């Protein structure tokens, strides 16, 4: 029915509208695709009920059949595409737009009582409309909307509550399905995947302009960080804390905050909402004692907020809160498995993981990577003199010292015992690493124990090398340095055993 989608003028005269006047009759089951399309076009053209099409985004009319054009008094010879759906609706019908948009975005259809407007007289025309999506884009968003109307009647008035009940049941079913899917993701998915799904589903179910999840800063601050967002760009990065935004207000009050009309809001600043063309919204805290973040839904125009919408957001926030408990527990377990419990430094496993990534990056960019292996001198004697507590204190002090002398991009790790490693990605040559070795001075591990020195082995990538090979080269250089005396370092060379200092 491609003819329906082409702009045309309402024809002068009777029932002519640019569609075929006659359709050749065929036996049932023998119609070709073109013939069937022609039959359908003829049926719509001849239908006594008003039928129309409009674009979801712009509201521009694409088609009115003769019954619809006559009903609203469409001027003869005028292009249908010159008008929008709002032109043939009363103010009361326009006020229903958020409800209709939400239903079309979520369920794909809406049915209810409304009012059309006669274009010439402005008189309201009570109607019962069935509105439905006929075409969607690649992301599932509505593109083209169809509508069929009928006059209200006693039978229709009795039928409308049933249709409304069916629509309500359908919406509840969809909400339960979405909550079940989010609950499944809460058990298996990472945080980014879960927040992306949650904000997308909230936007679709409620028919709002955008939805977001913002994280409350751990140590306080002027802004919350947006971790999940679905809506038109650009994606926000932060939102104001406290009374600076709806999100901040919900976090501060640790309670649901509903804003049906931005222009009437006095509890928090709405300048950011106004700048993004948002008429109102709802903010629901995620978690409690303390609040982890806030789930928000913003709509384009002011509109009443129903308890069902708040209940849905509460349910989604509860799913997110449960998932966060699982994700944070997994992160704690992963951190423990990848970090040394005494010093808090990355352990051998994490050091190898980061070294492997640095070598891969260097292979792509032509850069160089360096490794320093550091071993305390005479640590066994120190341990015997001070005891295990004193030995642990020495290791902690050395770890703190190493952290203080490296670059922000470097990694300090504890390989085990009194052996440490420093990973230096993106170095220009040995001189960069030697400067770090020179800054690693003696550490005073315990009052009265005296300074403790360390032997250092350095290896810098040249040809392709594996993580284990590079560490092995630095380890050999460290033993070479230790053999020449305490507090020395040695640089590994492929053609020689190493140079010491």
TrEMBL record:
One Pfam assignment: GGDEF
Region (Disordered): 1-30
Annotated ranges, domain GGDEF: 367-494
CDD domains: GGDEF
Domain of life: Bacteria
PANTHER family for this protein: BIOFILM ARCHITECTURE MAINTENANCE PROTEIN MBAA, DIGUANYLATE CYCLASE DGCP
Protein name, per record: Diguanylate cyclase (GGDEF) domain-containing protein
């Amino acid at each position: 029915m491609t003819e329906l989608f082409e702009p045309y003028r309402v024809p002068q005269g009777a029932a002519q509208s640019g569609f075929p006047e006659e359709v050749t009759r065929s036996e049932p089951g023998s119609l070709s695709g073109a013939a069937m399309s022609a039959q359908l076009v003829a049926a719509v053209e001849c239908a006594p009920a008003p039928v129309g099409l409009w674009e979801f985004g712009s509201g521009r009319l694409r088609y009115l059949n003769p019954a619809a054009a006559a009903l609203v008094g469409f001027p003869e010879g005028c292009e249908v595409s010159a008008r929008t759906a709002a032109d043939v609706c009363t103010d009361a019908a326009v006020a229903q737009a958020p409800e209709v948009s939400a239903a079309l975005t979520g369920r794909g259809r809406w049915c209810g009582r409304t009012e059309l407007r006669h274009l010439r007289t402005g008189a309201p025309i009570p109607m019962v409309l069935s509105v439905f999506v006929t075409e969607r884009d690649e992301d599932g968003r509505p593109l083209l909307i169809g509508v069929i109307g009928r006059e209200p009647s006693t039978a229709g008035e009795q039928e409308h509550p049933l249709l409304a009940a069916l629509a309500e049941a359908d919406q509840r079913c969809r909400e339960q399905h979405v909550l079940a899917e989010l609950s499944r993701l809460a058990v298996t998915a990472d945080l980014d995947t879960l927040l992306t799904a949650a904000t997308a589903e909230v936007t679709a179910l409620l028919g709002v302009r955008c939805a977001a999840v913002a994280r409350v800063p751990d140590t306080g601050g002027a802004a919350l960080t947006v971790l999940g967002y679905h809506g038109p760009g650009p994606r926000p990065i932060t939102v104001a804390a406290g009374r600076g935004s709806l999100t901040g207000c919900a976090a501060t009050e640790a309670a649901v905050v509903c804003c049906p009309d931005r222009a009437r809001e006095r509890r928090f600043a709405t300048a950011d909402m106004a700048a993004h063309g948002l008429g109102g919204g709802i903010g629901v805290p995620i978690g409690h004692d303390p609040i982890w973040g806030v789930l928000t839904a913003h709509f384009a125009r002011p509109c009443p907020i129903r308890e069902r919408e708040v209940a849905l957001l509460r349910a989604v926030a509860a799913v997110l809160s449960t998932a966060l408990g699982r994700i944070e527990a997994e992160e704690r377990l992963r951190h423990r498995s990848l970090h040394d419990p005494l010093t808090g430094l990355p352990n051998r496993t994490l050091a190898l993981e980061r070294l492997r990534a640095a070598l891969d990056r260097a292979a792509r960019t032509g850069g160089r990577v360096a490794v320093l292996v550091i071993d305390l001198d005479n640590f066994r004697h120190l341990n015997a003199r001070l005891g295990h507590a004193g030995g642990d204190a020495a290791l902690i002090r050395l770890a703190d010292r190493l952290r203080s002398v490296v670059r922000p991009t470097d990694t300090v790790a504890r390989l085990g015992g009194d052996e440490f490693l420093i990973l230096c990605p993106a170095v220009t040559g040995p001189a960069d690493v030697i400067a770090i070795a020179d800054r690693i001075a003696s550490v005073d591990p315990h009052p009265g124990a005296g300074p403790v020195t360390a032997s250092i082995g350095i290896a810098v990538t040249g040809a392709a090398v594996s993580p284990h090979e590079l560490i092995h080269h630095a380890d050999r250089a460290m033993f070479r340095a230790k053999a020449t005396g305490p507090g020395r370092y040695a640089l590994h060379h492929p053609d020689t055993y190493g140079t010491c200092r």
